[in-house]
Design a protein that fits this description.
By secondary structure, the protein is α/β, with parallel strands linked by helices. The chain has one domain: 3-Layer(aba) Sandwich (Rossmann fold). Helix content is 55%, strand content 14%. The chain has 10 helices and 7 strands. A 7-stranded parallel sheet has the order 3-2-1-4-5-6-7, sandwiched between helices. The longest helix has 33 residues. The radius of gyration is 18 Å and the shape is globular. The structure holds NADP nicotinamide-adenine-dinucleotide phosphate. NADP nicotinamide-adenine-dinucleotide phosphate (NAP) binds next to α1 and α6.
Length: 266
């Protein structure tokens, strides 16, 4: 059986690919950089003696999900795990970031997740019928999803969308053999901060709390197989999410703004 992971070329997605490879899952790796995917496929095939395929694609381009679905069907892949991990953030004042780059982020963080989930769900269901084994979907949100985050306003909103969509879908599929989980990592040592164009001050703050992608991946995959609704790796991250349930929104936003705006003005 295959696990299809988006954003598998680096960071948390790459670590989740390795975690599943170690559990003897065959893999389909999706991301933009063909060379990184090819290298990873070769490495994991040799190390774990599994089948690793890769599909280089820019998921922010509309209709790419249809091409991926068609390719999976043509290759008769029994996919039992779908991990929607590809995503990125943009740090800055909403007014100063370009509308094009913000639209691109929304396309990747939200629309691509919806498209791939919708189009691959029939394949996951067919695999469960064929194998009599459960299937799993895991969508990657963020601890930023649980409150507004000034200067990461739109990114946080895209991840709030993921939490809500994932929980709703999980409820709809509760009597089916497909389990749905939301993963919400906090600061993790990946390319994320660079792609979000975070300054050195903010990166230094994040580094104090960073988890490693390998740690996050292990907790995430365990949570997915445990059929958890939401997985928030790390004690501090989990505590910070719980605090948002009980604290006034204005207070939590002020704390978030304190961290992010302070560094933006430097
Ligand atoms: N790191 C953190 O602190 C953190 C915290 C909370 C949540 N997250 C979330 O975790 C997920 C993984 O991020 P990461 O931290 O591992 O960041 P990362 O190291 O930048 O990895 C992002 C992955 O997504 C792929 N990707 C980016 N744009 C893409 C596109 N248009 N089409 C296809 N693939 C694309 C990248 O590969 P290519 O560049 O090869 O396309 C890469 O494999 C994201 O959804 C992110 O929002 C991260």
């Amino acid at each position: 059986m295959y696990a299809l992971i988006t954003g598998a070329s680096k960071g948390i997605g790459k670590a989740m690919a390795e975690e599943l490879a170690a559990r003897q899952y065959n893999l389909v790796l999706v991301a933009r950089s063909a060379q990184e995917l090819q290298n990873l496929a070769k490495e994991l095939t040799q190390k774990y003696n599994i089948n690793v395929l890769y599909y280089p694609a820019d998921l922010s381009v509309p209709n790419v999900a249809t091409q991926i679905r068609d390719w999976c069907v043509d290759n008769q892949l029994d996919i039992s795990i779908l991990i929607n991990n590809a995503g990125y953030g943009l740090w800055g004042w909403f007014e100063k970031l370009t509308l094009d780059e913000q639209r691109n982020m929304m396309q990747l963080n939200m629309n691509a997740v919806v498209d791939i989930t919708y189009l691959l769900l029939p394949i996951l269901r067919a695999t469960t019928t064929k194998t009599n084994q459960p299937a799993y979907i895991m969508n990657v949100a963020s601890t930023a999803a649980y409150q507004a985050v000034p200067t990461l306003s739109l990114y946080a909103a895209t991840k709030a969308f993921i939490v809500s969509f994932t929980r709703g879908l999980r409820f709809e599929l509760q009597d089916s053999p497909v389990s749905v989980t939301c993963l919400s990592p906090g600061a993790t040592d990946t390319n994320f901060a660079d792609r979000a164009k975070m300054g050195e001050g903010l990166k230094a703050t994040a580094e104090k709390y960073n988890m490693s992608p390998t740690e996050v991946a292990k907790i995430a995959i365990n949570g997915m197989f445990n059929k958890d609704a939401e997985v928030v790796p790390g004690f501090i991250n989990s505590l910070s999410v719980k605090m948002t349930y009980f604290s006034p929104k204005s207070l939590i936003e002020k704390i978030a703004a304190g961290i992010y705006i302070k560094h933006l003005e430097k």
